[in-house]
């Protein structure tokens, strides 16, 4: 049975940012919503008018959507997540149109597993460093993103 948007987002929040506290989970959910709401570029085409499920399921975007990583099984995937009430609350908050101002219009996030955030992400210069929140670095779209 496929997950509806609420279930999918709650599982993604737990998987991608479950150890980041409420503010980190809201920030990760905000990136998903920013992607669903942007009016240009790749994510506008993918979302087809704001479809959150399309954004989350877009291939290659979230490690937690993959059951295989680097040729091996990825146990940290959304299918193994059992969201708790807080994950559903944050999913509902985001699906109601809310985003966290602390990450602005960021479309990308990354856990660099180091104290330093790369100046741009993903490769190709379509995102520029905006802020760091807990273990994640957040990236706002550059002018190059418009051409994606």
Strand and helix map with partners:
Elements: H1 5-17, H2 21-37, H3 41-47, H4 52-57, E1 68-69, E2 72-73, H5 85-95, E3 108-110, E4 127-133, E5 136-141
Antiparallel strand pairs: 1-2, 3-5, 4-5
Helix pairs in contact: 1-2, 1-5, 2-5
Structural notes for this entry:
The protein has 5 helices and 5 strands, in the order H-H-H-H-E-E-H-E-E-E. With 148 residues, the protein is of the alpha+beta class. The strands form 2 sheets. A 3-stranded antiparallel β-sheet has the order 3-5-4. Strands 1-2 form a two-stranded antiparallel sheet. Helix 1 packs across helix 2 (21-37), helix 1 packs across helix 5 (85-95) and helix 2 (21-37) runs parallel beside helix 5 (85-95). The N and C termini lie far apart (32 Å).
Question: What is the structure about, briefly put?
Answer:
By secondary structure, the protein is of the alpha+beta class. It is built from five helices and five strands, in the order H-H-H-H-E-E-H-E-E-E.
Order of helices and strands: HHHHEEHEEE
Mean pLDDT: 96
- Give me the number of helical elements: 5
Helix content: 25-40%
Strand content: 5-15%
Describe the structure using short key phrases:
two-stranded antiparallel ribbon, alpha+beta
């Amino acid at each position: 049975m496929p997950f509806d948007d609420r279930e999918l987002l709650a599982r993604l929040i737990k998987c991608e940012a479950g150890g980041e506290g409420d503010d980190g989970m809201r920030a990760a959910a905000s990136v998903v919503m920013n992607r669903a709401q942007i009016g240009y570029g790749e994510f506008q085409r993918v979302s087809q008018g704001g479809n959150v499920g399309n954004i989350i399921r877009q291939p290659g975007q979230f490690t937690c959507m993959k059951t295989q990583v680097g040729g091996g099984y990825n146990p940290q995937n959304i299918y193994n997540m059992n969201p708790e009430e807080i994950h559903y609350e944050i999913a509902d908050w985001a699906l109601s149109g809310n985003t966290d101002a602390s990450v602005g219009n960021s479309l990308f996030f990354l856990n660099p597993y180091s104290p330093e955030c790369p100046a741009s992400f993903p490769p190709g210069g379509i995102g520029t460093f905006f802020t760091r929140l807990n273990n994640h670095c957040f990236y706002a779209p550059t002018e190059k993103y418009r051409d994606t």
